[in-house]
TrEMBL record:
Pfam family, one: DUF502
Annotated InterPro entries: COV1-like
Biased composition (Basic and acidic residues): 218-227
PANTHER family: COV-LIKE PROTEIN 1 (PTHR31876), PROTEIN LIKE COV 2 (PTHR31876:SF26)
Keywords: Membrane, Transmembrane, Transmembrane helix
Organism for this UniProt entry: Marinicauda pacifica
Lineage top rank: taxon: Bacteria
Transmembrane segments: 12-33, 53-78
Region (Disordered): 207-227
Entry protein name: DUF502 domain-containing protein
Amino acid sequence: MLRWLRNSFLTGIVVVTPVAVTVWLIVTFVNFVDSTIKPLVPARYNPESYLPFALPGMGLIIAILALTFLGALAANIFGRTLLGFGERIVNSVPLVRNLYGGLKQIVETVFSGQQNSFKEVVLVEYPMKGSYAVAFVSSYAKGEIRAVVGQGEEVIGVFVPTTPNPTSGFLLFVPRSKVIELSLSVEEAAKLIISFGLVTPEHLPDGAVPETPAKRGASRENTDGVL
């Protein structure tokens, strides 16, 4: 009986915790946006000034409408001209232009939907030989980096995230032959990293376990025999 009660209690925690955390994050985000946007709305245009109760999510709706309007404005000639004038002013400030340029490039890369941006999951030998870390292919090296690292071979930039916070990590440039390609999706790899490796995919992707030199030699002998 005690074992059944304990298992039922733990099962309840497993069922409720993801839902509770998700709801809490959504409510926290909506409240944060509301508390930031609502004070900027004049009282005569704020529906809450005429209602005896608050409207949750109104600030989020206003923010979405404002961003949509700004996007539509920036798409026409007048908006592009005004935006270009503002960027010229920002680029004239030494420290601000570096910060603005870097943030703009990151945001454009994330929201441009490029085919090769964080679309591939690999294993890279890091931080020492014989140990492997999950990484995301972020770019393809060109110019001096490719010439120095690859020496004629394709060189890729991989982002090695930290656990359990995948927003921070390390950028490594390695030859393509030094990584092991995985069939994991970006979502599966992110769950693996955030959960300290506790949440693992059910399937074992091809190439996840690198072949030992003995296995490589055996496979080559078998191939030569067939040929």
